């Protein structure tokens, strides 16, 4: 919205700053952060009053989690609210990729909100049936995949770009949409599975979003793509504003989610943010890089899949408990130890993913 202030510029004044994505990204970060600090306490108070007993705690989970009973959930509303507000103010609203990531974020956030509401109102951990959640997620992802393909350059439509092997494109044809659906739905659910300890999911999401934002900015500029020898996707640079807003909103939320958490993100936040990461990867043609940058989420999801499949086959467990962060809890690791070490792993993976821009 504020981008249109450039119409008042003569090319050398303050209003000219609004032409620059990096300036507006900084504004989006500060706006989202301020939003989190201002609206965090009143939102938490409202959630605490409305939810009463707070998020239901699983009886079969780690014993230490029982002490968290009564903590309100749906804190993702704070992140999404900050993110949407800051993006609407600072991003170019004539950019299709901005609307793409906002659509996916809000749509998956709505699924998560319904799931959180069902859990809190019924005081059980079941929520919305899994098949319904998955079905709705697939519909949203199909729309997003078609949306992205429609706005990609003709030579990149339905193509899979390979990191490192930069001159190689794999024509997925009809399978591009199913592949993109797997990326978006998979990312949403992987982040959802990771959100099991105070602060565990939000920082890796912020790290991954920042990395993808840098990639989006790079692939949206012809000078950068020529230097880095990566595929040019016009318009994606504006996604940097969105990711900066996500980082600011996430930081504001982490202020209240740091152990011991005053509020949980809930599925409202985890599904929304995970879906956003998947949508950005699809928009920028860096789907495979997301698997590196978001490697922590991949491991968390794989630990659940391995546990379920192995238990069905043998009746035994590979991990003491899945997802894998609970395995380390069962082994006696302190919660802050797990969280900080997983943050470090996320940062390392993000640096590796970012390096794929140059390595070939």
Largest sheet: 2 strands, antiparallel
Q: Radius of gyration, rounded?
A: 20 Å
Instruction: Give the fraction of residues assigned to helices.
Output: 55-70%
Q: Which outline best applies?
A: globular
Count of helix runs: 13
Q: Please mark out the parts with pLDDT under 50 across 5 or more consecutive residues, or reply none.
A: none
Work out the strand percent. Answer: under 5%
Q: How are the strands of the largest sheet arranged?
A: 1-2
Order of helices and strands: HHHHEEHHHHHHHHH
- The pLDDT mean sits at 92
Q: How many separate structural domains?
A: 1
Q: Give the total of beta strands.
A: 2
Assembly state here? Answer: single chain
The chain-level structural class is mainly alpha
The termini sit apart by 38 Å
Summary tags:
360 residues; mainly alpha; two-stranded antiparallel ribbon; 13 helices; globular
Descriptive account of the structure:
By secondary structure, this protein is an all-alpha fold. The chain has one domain. The protein is built from 13 helices and 2 strands; from the N terminus they run ααααββααααααααα. Strands 1-2 form a two-stranded antiparallel ribbon. A hairpin with a 7-residue loop joins strand 1 (159-161) and strand 2 (169-171). Helix 2 runs antiparallel to helix 8 (239-257). The chain is globular.
